[in-house]
Amino acid sequence: VKTTDIGEFGLIERLAALLPKGAPPELVAGIGDDTAVWRVGERCLLATTDTMVEDEHFDELAEWPDVGWKILAVNLSDIAAMGGTPLFGLVTIGVRPKMRVEALDALYTGLAECAERYGVAIVGGDVVRARQVSVTVALLGEARMAGRRPLVLRRGGAKVGDAIAVTGTLGDSAGGLRQMQQGEAPDKRLRRRHYRPEPRLAEGQAAVRAGLRCAIDVSDGLLQDLGHVCEQSGVGAVVRWEDVPVSKELLAAYPRKAAEMALTGGEDYELVLVGRRAVLSRLPVTIIGETVEGSGVRVLDLDGAEVEFASPGWDALRL
Ligand SMILES: [Mg+2]
Fold first, then answer.
1. What Å distances lie between residue 286 and 164, 176, 202, 272, CA to CA?
2. Distance in angstroms (rounded) separating the CA atoms of residues 169 and 196
3. 35-52 per-position pLDDT tens digit
4. What is the Å distance from ligand 1's center to 225 Cα?
5. Cα of 200 to ligand 1 centre, how many Å?
6. For residues 39-75, b (16+ Cβ closer than 10 Å) or e, as one string?
7. In what order do the strands lie in the sheet with 286-292?
8. I need a surface site. Which of 58, 98, 121, 280 has the fewest CB within 10 A?
9. Residues with CB under 5 A from ligand 1 (ion)
């Protein structure tokens, strides 16, 4: 069996099946949510990890400080998607033989900037030699508790009839990347949205306080990420395409492609929040659809006709 045959999600399922059976009682959420959730006495820890690899997640178009910022930001985004607060992180870097140390200094400058901005302590890690540069962050955070019950946003927390909302705008990251790859001078804001994503920590925490219990962050593409929510909640979803928020910068750069980029582009690191419409209406988010009986995500145009896409989003192993 080749990794390309089963894809990222097939591989995760297959490997998870090889692990010892039986969840420890402290485990609230394991493989398959944005972070693991682990109870420690009266408190509750969140844990997540993400890696960026040279030529896979970034190339010579990227500046080293941006790579450092982004690897921490994408981990923070998973904490945000649970409605949690970050605590501390560990950083592992793969370093090419005889690589210029100044490049790694620069990477750490961006990483430190992000750590400072979001109040994360970097407390350790590892350095290894590798043929390609890679940087991995493992991040721990904390969830609020109601007694002994953690208050977190789970992928499996949606019910039929819930509204679906997103923070910010979608597709900017894909638009910025496309402009750079085509050798155009990218729009400054789109470029920034690609390289300097801002994890929606405050928004996730506000969602928990408002009583919401379901979210995911947009890392692979709205349709794919919302698909995970549907799968784990046992619901379907309908998204109205004209309601998906798109920035004026993206519309100006890609008037015909903007909507598709917003639905399938990925790496926006906005939050998809699912819950009662009355609750979502009080938050600074845009409602884009609702959950329904059934399974899968359907996108409807202005006339109510279904829109089809070649791919719902990113799979790390299928390219
Ligand atoms: Mg995530």
1. 8, 22, 16, 10
2. 15
3. 999 999 999 999 999 999
4. 8
5. 12
6. beeeebbbebbbbbebeebbeeebebbbbbbbbbbbb
7. 214-217, 271-275, 163-166, 286-292, 236-240, 296-300, 306-307
8. 98
9. 34, 78, 217, 219
Query: What does DSSP say about strands 286-292 and 271-275: parallel, antiparallel, or unpaired?
Result: unpaired
Ligand 1 center–CA 80 separation, angstroms: 9
Query: How many angstroms separate the alpha carbon of residue 37 from the centre of ligand 1?
Result: 14
- Whole-number Å distance, alpha carbon 118 to ligand 1 midpoint, is 17
**Residue whose structure tokens are 């790694």:** 104
Distance 142 CA to ligand 1 centre (A): 16
Distance 217 CA to ligand 1 centre (A): 5
By DSSP bridging, strand 149-151 and strand 144-146 are antiparallel
Which backbone phi and psi does 99 adopt, to 5 degrees? -70, 150
Cα(264) to centroid(ligand 1), Å:
15
* Contact between 241 and 263 (Cβ < 8 Å): yes
191, 188, 118, 265: CA torsion to nearest 10: -30
For ligand 1, the distance from its centroid to the CA atom of residue 216, given in whole angstroms, is: 6
Here the tokens at position 83 are 């409605």
Question: Is there a contact between 97 and 165 (Cβ–Cβ < 8 Å)?
Answer: no
- Other CB atoms within a 10 A radius of the CB of residue 158 amount to 28
- Helices 188-195 & 64-81 angle (0-180, nearest 10): 70
97 alpha carbon – ligand 1 mean position (Å): 32
Using pLDDT thresholds of 50, 70 and 90, give the confidence band for residue 309.
confident
Residue 62 has pLDDT above 70, yes or no: yes
| 172, 218 contact by CB (below 8 A) | no
H/E element holding 297? strand 296-300
Quote the ligand 1 centre to 1 CA distance (angstroms): 27
For the entire predicted model, the pTM comes to 0.95
